[in-house]
Amino acid sequence: GESVGLHLPTLSVQEGDNSIINCAYSNSASDYFIWYKQESGKGPQFIIDIRSNMDKRQGQRVTVLLNKTVKHLSLQIAATQPGDSAVYFCAEIRGGAAGNKLTFGGGTRVLVKP
Amino acid sequence: KAGVTQTPRYLIKTRGQQVTLSCSPISGHRSVSWYQQTPGQGLQFLFEYFSETQRNKGNFPGRFSGRQFSNSRSEMNVSTLELGDSALYLCASSSVTSGGADTQYFGPGTRLTVL
């Protein structure tokens, strides 16, 4: 069926290094994609989104890349900090007749080592 | 702007009881969605409300219901609670218009424990 998934369940990264979190999706009709960060005991926090007609978008220390050819999404975090330790989810939205419904991937846990 | 708020933050109920959770969206947002998060199933969509109408529904039994008020605040209800209903229930609001899609912003969630 249609799904959004993540390749790596856990990613350990040294403080100061760059992190790359990957996500595969199967529905080419998605309008756009969102990355969320969830810390323990909190709700998912919006990080960045990208529309399906774009292939790259940058925010503060984060970059999202979208490769529609291979249906792949990635989140790059520059100079990873201890506060970046969390679970990261990718999600897709199709909109239109499907409504404003998010379909989430399974999540990747990022552990930042000091 | 204040973020999405959810009440209560924690709830403990017993099997067979019913529960009502509340969500206040970001001011100006008319779309409210509900999600269930469990370690085993991850984040799963329950339903979305827009302008007091349920616009989309996930694959949950009829024990799960919701509604939205004219001020966009939303409630969800779970009747005849089961142990498997223990989860973090998340509400998200969006500024989406009637025909589009837009980013959703989440509240802190309500942690429901069913004993």
Describe this structure in words.
The complex is a heterodimer of chains A (114) and B (115). Chain A is an all-beta fold. Chain A is built from no helices and 11 strands. Chain A has strands at residues 4-6, 10-14, 19-25, 32-38, 45-51, 56-58, 62-67, 72-77, 86-93, 102-104, 108-113. In chain A, the strands form 2 sheets. In chain A, strands 2, 4, 5, 9, 10 and 11 form a 6-stranded mixed β-sheet that branches. A 5-stranded antiparallel β-sheet of chain A has the order 1-3-8-7-6, with no helix packed on it. In chain A, strand 4 and strand 5 (45-51) form a beta hairpin. Chain A is globular, with a radius of gyration of 14 Å. Chain A starts with a strand and ends with a strand. Chain B has 115 residues and is an all-beta fold. In chain B, 0% of the residues lie in helices and 52% in strands. Chain B contains no helices and 11 strands. Chain B has strands spanning 5-7, 10-13, 19-24, 31-38, 42-50, 53-57, 64-68, 74-78, 87-94, 105-106, 110-114. In chain B, the strands form 2 sheets. In chain B, strands 2, 4, 5, 6, 9, 10 and 11 form a 7-stranded mixed β-sheet that branches. In chain B, strands 1-3-8-7 form a 4-stranded antiparallel β-sheet, with no helix packed on it. The radius of gyration of chain B is 13 Å and the shape is globular.
